[in-house]
Amino acid sequence: QEPLTASMLAAAPLHEQKQMIGERLYPLIHDVHTQLAGKITGMLLEIDNSELLLMLESPESLHAKIEEAVAVLQAH
Amino acid sequence: GSSINWPPEFHPGVPWKGLQNI
Question: What is the ipTM for the molecules in this complex?
Fold first, then answer.
C-alpha cells in the first residue's frame, strides 16, 4: 500500500479525507490497542490532517498520541 | 450534550460519524 500524501488527500472531498486517514490509522492502532482501536482512531481523527499525515510517517509520534488518547479515554 | 457517545468511533469501511462536526 502506497503512503498517503497531502496531494492525495487534497484531491479528495473533505468528508473522504478523514475516512482515508482513518483507514490507514486504524490497523496501526488496532495492533497496539485492539479493544479501543475504534475509539482511539475516532479521537485522533479530530486532529488536523497535516499532523495526522506526520503521525502516519512517524511511529514514535503516533504511539505517543495513542497513549495520550488512552489516558483521556480512561479518565473520561 | 451527552458525552456518552464521545468519541465518535471509527471502523474500517464505515463512514466516520465525527465528520458531522466538521
Answer: 0.87
Q: Do A38 and B18 touch (CB under 8 A)?
A: no
The 10s digit of each residue's pLDDT in B1-22 is 555 678 899 999 999 988 765 5
Give the span between the Cα atoms of A3 and A1, in whole angstroms.
7
Interface of A to B at Cβ within 8 Å reads: 14-15, 18-19, 22-23, 25-27, 38-39, 41-43, 45-46, 73, 76
CB contact burial B2-22 (16+ within 10 A = b; e otherwise): eeeeebbbbeeeeebebbeee
